[in-house]
Structures are given as C-alpha cells and as structure tokens.
What does this fold into?
Amino acid sequence: MDIDARELIILSTISGVGTARLRGLVNHFGGTGGVFQATAHDLSSVEGLDKRTAASILSFLIGSERSEAAALADAQLSKLNRLDAHIVTVWDESYPINLRKVYDPPPFLFARGTILPRDEISLAVVGTRNPSPYGSRLAGFFAQELARLDFTVVSGLARGIDTLAHEAVLKAGGRTIAVIGSGLDVPYPPENIPLGNSIVRNGAIISEYLMGTQPDAVNFPRRNRIISGMTLGTLVIETGIEGGAMITASMALDQNREVFALPGPIGDGRPSGTHLLIKEGRAKLTESVDDILAELDPSLRRGSAMAGTSLQATRPRPELSLFEQKVLDAIGSGKIHVDDIAISARLSSGEVLVELLNLELKGLVKQQPGKIFSAI
It folds into this structure.
C-alpha cells in the first residue's frame, strides 16, 4: 500500500468524505496516489460510494479546491516538522494495534514521540478533573502498579486524574500515551506543557485533529473513543454521572473492551458515576490490579506479570526515608498485621499507615485482606 501523508491530508478535506470513506477510497485504489488518478467510472465502482459523493470527489480533484487543500497539507507538515512530530496512518505498522481493530478507526494520527508494539498491552486510566484526596492517591497507585507490570497507561492529559496517572507512570519509569482533543501545537491545559514533554520522551502524545485545532468541548468525546479504542480496557477512578470519563467507559463497552471502576466513599458525589457503572453491571468493581488482570486473557496475565518482574528487577531501588525504612524492616520477609508493624517499628498505627501508603506507591509493599502487609 503506497500511502503519502500529504495526499492523505488533502483527501481528508473533501466534502462528504469522512473517515470510513477515506479508508475505503485508499483501500480500493491501493494507495493515496491511485485516488488522484481516478476517473468518474473508477469512482463509481468504489463500494458504498454514491453518485453524489463520487461527483463531489471528482470535482475536487480537477478543481481549485485541490490546490487550496494542498496548501493546507503543506502548512500542516511544516508545523509537524517544527514540533519534531509525524503522521501515523492506519496502514502503518506503527499504528496502535488495538485501535486498528475498532469500528471506524481514524485514518491517520498526528504524533509526538513513539508508538511501540509493546503499547498493545495498555490500559486507559481516566476520571474527574477535580478528584478527592482518595481518588488522587488511588490514581497514582494504580498507574504505578500497571507501569510495573509493563502496561502502557493511556489517558487524556487533562487536569485531575489524567495528570496524576501520567505523572505516576513516569515516576515509575514506565510508558504512557496522552490522547488530546486539540492540535499537537495547541497543548491543553497549558500548565501541562512540561508534563507533555516528559511524556514524549517516554511514550507519545497523539491527536487526530489538525494542527492549530483549539481544545473545544466538542472535540473531547471523539478524543475519548481513541483512549478507549487503543487499550485493552478502561479504569475509571472517580467521575460524576455526567463526567467525560463516563463517555470513555461507554465507548469502551461499544468497542467490546473491559471497563473497571473503583468504589468511592458514600456521600461524595465525585464517584457517583463509578458507582453507577458498577451497579448497572457495566464495570467490574476493582479493588486491586489483580482484579484487572483477572478479567484479561490468562496468557496476557502471565506475560505481564513476568514482564513486571523483569522491569522491577532492573529498576533502581527508590530512596526511603528513615521511617519508611523502619516500617519496611518491621515487615521483613513475611506477612504481618499493621498493629504488629507498629509495635515492631515503635510507631503509632496512624504513622505506620502513612508510611505504608508511601511504600505501596513506591512498589515495595503490598496490602492484603485484613490489613496484612508483605514486602514485594
């Protein structure tokens, strides 16, 4: 398949040619160049192309609109070059594997950074822009745990849960991909520009929107279908019933992907959407990463666990405070109740719980039912 990015952008501007028709045209003619050489008879033979659209395409190809679209495409490629970005088409090997399998995948994406085959093993982590301390803590914890299992974590670079998930993965030395609802040259929110640059060095920022596109509200539902489509499942941390994360969850279900939801405190409106997903049976109630792995293919679960072990073995041990080290020493190599840890470390139970949380986030301690802890 001979695909030219410039020609693909030009074809995408034709009135009446959406994503499905664009893919159909390129597939029918064996590449972008073949579309430009098509006659009226050739176009009439394309499956699903009505006479009106065929006439519109032919008029575009022989008229002044083509020159205007070519100027637009040249400007887009120039802006991409200045950002050291590139275009990934659905016909490229580097196109996200999972996204290619969904209904109506974008024909092309704009990308900064790299998309790797290993990103097939990925999970979306999404939620509210105004998380509670509870939601903030768990967003970081789950994102780091997934990173240690070699999952690529995908989110939307928005304020709140998205930002916390990206940051936690980077802290753990993992890969993360941000899907944004604007042009790559219009980063949003602006305070996340440094975070975006870090993501590019450890993953990618991608968008289906042309350079210069502003982050208008109507863009984000379409953006969400890419977040869910390029992953094996979506983990919803906290969201209201009308939250954007609910749209991502619905799209994941439409794409036959798994949805996971964390229960939150009763009486707090921020997890009302996650509670609804659980009550309606649309999401699996999730209390640990093991709940996520249990829903995935068993062979994938084993492979991820092995990859996580290898990754952790090569990662430098994080620095510990004096109290974190005391608590870790108290745990030893066995399984021990939090009260016994407090006695051994000569700390209060409250102080121990704080240090245990820090150790969990650093991937050194795992909690088990009954407030039992063990070192990893």
Remarks:
- Residues 301-316 have pLDDT under 50 and may be disordered.
- The first helix runs from residue 5 to 12.
